[in-house]
Predict the 3D structure of the following.
Amino acid sequence: MDRKPLETNTVTQIGILVHDIEKTAKAYSEFLGIEPRFVTTGTYEEAETEYMGSPSKARCRLAFFTVGPSLELELLQPDHEPSTWRHDLDKYGEGVHHIAFVVNGMKEKTMLLQRNNIPLLQKGEYPGGRYAYFDGTEQLKVVLELLEND
Amino acid sequence: MDRKPLETNTVTQIGILVHDIEKTAKAYSEFLGIEPRFVTTGTYEEAETEYMGSPSKARCRLAFFTVGPSLELELLQPDHEPSTWRHDLDKYGEGVHHIAFVVNGMKEKTMLLQRNNIPLLQKGEYPGGRYAYFDGTEQLKVVLELLEND
């Protein structure tokens, strides 16, 4: 593998797929003693979601908990449109889906990961930035998410 | 659930089960651009490992990478003695196994979690402290590890 393709070694999110985000967010809220920040990903027109190279109307309800100086725990409840969220929730059930890194230069980083046999799964836009998921399971045993904020 | 039973909301480790720790540690070392710290858990006499209420000779090879101001990524390659590591690696394959929190008062915290229907799976000693794994999958969708340092 290329050395340090992302130019960072800071994990900023742990993403956990769930069936019922209200119920699991309530459990985490009690367990951690903190309140989550809820977000719903945008419409196709806003998010321009692509999953496995094709446009998808998939949307996802998210709940973020701050669990460290630069770390969030993210719960994700996807809808039933095609996405890496729905695929993995159906295939593997609830549990950790990905770890995330904040990067600069999403296009260049995407090319670098793909050159290192870490394929792009899904990408999309959010207000103020964009994300992409990559299949790191063969080499790193996890799905990776890259986040780029403008 | 009792509110904030651990008295912390800082996640300090992400634990990932692997079959070949040398190979996966090399991939992470290149990917993150940093070197791991390797550790092997103690013998039964040292670690006093208990899994599902019974003594176990299980040992585990570990590799720690610093991935944030207070966060480590931990790779775990267990041996074939009974343990939550071996059970989950055989049942679910490679991937994220647990998230960890550092606590004070392991005995009290263990009682509190069990009272909240988060059962103890495994515990043991390490030089300078002790760990315990709990089955948080029903409510929190992950296995939890508590760490107490003397």
Observations:
- Chain B has one domain: 13-149.
- The mean pLDDT of chain B is 97.
- Strands of chain B lie at 13-17, 37-40, 50-51, 54-55, 60-68, 71-78, 95-102, 120-126, 129-136, 142-149.
- The helical segments of chain B are 21-32, 44-47, 84-92, 106-115, 137-140.
